[in-house]
Task: inverse folding
């Protein structure tokens, strides 16, 4: 069973790694963020599979942390994308 | 199979590091770096450093990514000016040569590490009972090498003071960052209402299990800071003005408790940061409980940047 | 080859790649990224050494692992300070370079008049 | 009994892996951001969900099982909100 779980982890890792080609190609920044998001999900699955294969229970906590913060980069991306308009009002307030 | 997995991981992180360096746009490089941080978490799991994997997951996956994406978005369109300073071909070849030499020297070092490897695991195992905690890494962080942890908390505080010192004069004492438009029915606000309660429980859980299992105050504090930042991003809460006394007390409380327990150790145990017999575990818990909120607020404010508006607009 | 040696060698490669980026990238944000790549390479090297010291049922030598946690947090605080400095420079001058004749990308921030 | 549980793990994890394959294929082959987003959510929801369901019989405590469920729910929640936000961001930047 551990061999199968490790194999599945490797397969998922290779899959999401191939998805990283989107970071190279783009074209939009949103596409790049999606590749990172997919890698995050695949990473969580791989951590869980590795933990089950090696029998280290605490890896579930690592996956839990990753899951909590999985979308954090995407949130920051969307926020940063809408920053210019906010920036202008802030400058007027300050003046 | 496990070898194949490790080789794949190693190839991926080196490839992503190269992409981070050579990518044409800063934003593409930053996304590459975030993916790189995620894969490092897997590498730490493979190296049996679960505590380190937790730290990397929390800091690399959450805080660093948000910080760099924000910076890359602000600096969009600055590549052209910077590209004018790109060094010429001879300088680049020289840099490549130097880097290759450094890599070669390190690789020789890695291959000629002594066997059997020296380890302090025996020393830790022999003395861990005196601390009362079950996780050897927590024992190292808060007992055997407590000075490092104290200095680290102070370094974080100094970094925050450094960030604050960049405030324009007329905004001194104001609120960090730019105001966020609050869209109370927006999707981000929805996530910022739903995730933090779960995140706070998970953060305190990770903090609490740190005594006996992988986890601890840094990881917990990072999760708490991320949740606070999420509510700020969604406009549900606002960053506090940095002139507030309660805020400053909150920031220094953790390190101060740590230092005072250290001085008590001089009297009771004969050494700075020494713990008297039998009291080690309660003192460690007190230090951790005091550091957790301070670290969470320091980390959150580090990401918010220097004040950019007045306290009362 | 065991995992410790493999990741130790990857760490050596990461340090080299990061050093190259730090030397040749003209953009300060890219230099910060390169600095972080070097940092993670150093951490990984220490992690490989920690893994070699596994004994008594511990997956690795706990002392270097504890130092790694400290190191990762300190590296983050240094990155945050560097990014804050860079953004302040950009706000103040409209440029990310220190060259005196650098072309400005956007008009100067009204906050700093 | 043990055999049946192991078989369940095999089938569910393999099916989850297939959804990751589908997600990657979609991310690479679909023509625009919105369709690619659609492919991505399959990996988030079904890929991780099936892997998680497959691993449930392999954990040794109820708490660990609950944590697994919690991880999946968290990824569902954050994946769905992030996809919505990215889609909205793309539409705004296309129209603006």
Result:
């Amino acid at each position: 069973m551990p061999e199968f779980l490790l194999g599945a982890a490797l397969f998922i890792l290779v899959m999401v790694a191939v998805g990283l080609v989107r970071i190279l190609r783009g074209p939009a920044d949103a596409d790049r963020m999606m590749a990172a998001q997919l890698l995050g999900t695949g990473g969580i699955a791989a951590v869980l599979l590795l933990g089950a294969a090696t029998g280290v229970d605490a890896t579930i906590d690592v996956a839990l942390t990753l899951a909590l913060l999985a979308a954090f980069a995407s949130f920051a991306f969307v926020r940063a994308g809408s920053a210019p308009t906010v920036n202008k009002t802030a400058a007027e307030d300050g003046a | 199979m496990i070898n194949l997995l490790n080789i794949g991981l190693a190839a991926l992180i080196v490839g992503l590091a190269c992409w981070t360096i050579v990518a044409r746009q800063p934003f593409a490089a930053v996304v590459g770096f975030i993916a790189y941080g995620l894969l490092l978490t897997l590498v730490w799991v493979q190296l049996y450093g679960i505590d380190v994997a937790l730290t990397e997951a929390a800091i690399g996956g959450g805080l660093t990514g948000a910080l760099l994406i924000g910076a890359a978005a602000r600096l969009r369109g600055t590549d052209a000016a910077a590209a004018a300073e790109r060094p010429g071909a001879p300088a680049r070849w020289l840099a490549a040569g130097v880097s290759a030499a450094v890599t070669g020297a390190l690789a020789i070092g890695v291959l000629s590490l002594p066997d059997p490897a020296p380890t302090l695991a025996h020393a830790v195992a022999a003395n861990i009972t005196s601390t009362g905690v079950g996780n050897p890494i927590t024992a190292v962080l808060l007992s055997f090498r407590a000075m490092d942890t104290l200095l680290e908390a102070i370094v974080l505080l100094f970094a925050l003071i450094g960030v604050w010192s960049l405030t324009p004069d007329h905004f001194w004492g104001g609120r960090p960052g730019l105001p966020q438009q609050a869209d109370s029915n927006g999707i981000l606000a929805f996530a910022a209402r739903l995730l933090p309660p779960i995140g706070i429980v998970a953060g305190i859980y990770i903090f609490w299990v740190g005594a006996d299992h992988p986890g601890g105050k840094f990881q917990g504090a990072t999760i708490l800071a991320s949740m606070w930042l999420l509510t700020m991003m969604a406009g549900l809460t606002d960053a506090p003005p940095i002139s507030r006394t309660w805020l400053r007390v909150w920031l220094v409380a953790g390190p101060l408790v740590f230092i005072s327990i250290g001085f008590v150790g001089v009297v009771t145990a004969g050494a700075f940061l020494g713990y008297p017999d039998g009291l080690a575990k309660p003192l460690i818990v007190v230090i951790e409980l005091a550091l957790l909120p301070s670290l969470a607020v320091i980390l959150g404010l580090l990401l918010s940047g220097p004040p950019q508006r007045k306290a009362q607009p | 080859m065991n995992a410790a040696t493999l990741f130790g060698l990857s760490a050596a490669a990461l340090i080299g790649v990061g050093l190259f980026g730090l030397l040749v990238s003209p953009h300060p944000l890219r230099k910060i990224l390169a600095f972080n790549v070097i940092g993670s390479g150093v951490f990984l090297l220490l992690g490989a050494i920690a893994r070699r010291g596994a004994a008594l049922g511990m997956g690795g030598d706990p002392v270097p692992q504890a130092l790694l946690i400290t190191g990762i947090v300190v590296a983050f605080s240094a990155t945050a300070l560097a990014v804050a400095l860079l953004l302040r420079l950009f706000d103040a001058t409209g440029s990310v370079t220190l060259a005196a004749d650098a072309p400005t990308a956007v008009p100067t921030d009204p906050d700093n008049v | 009994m043990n055999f049946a549980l192991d078989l369940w793990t095999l089938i569910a994890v393999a099916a989850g892996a297939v959804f990751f394959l589908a997600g990657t294929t979609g991310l690479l082959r679909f023509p625009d951001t919105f369709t690619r987003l659609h492919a991505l959510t399959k990996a988030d929801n079904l890929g991780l969900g099936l892997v998680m369901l497959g691993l449930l019989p392999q954990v040794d405590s109820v708490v660990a099982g609950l944590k697994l469920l919690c991880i999946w729910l968290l990824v569902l929640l954050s994946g769905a909100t992030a996809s919505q936000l990215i889609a909205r961001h793309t539409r705004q930047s296309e129209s603006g």
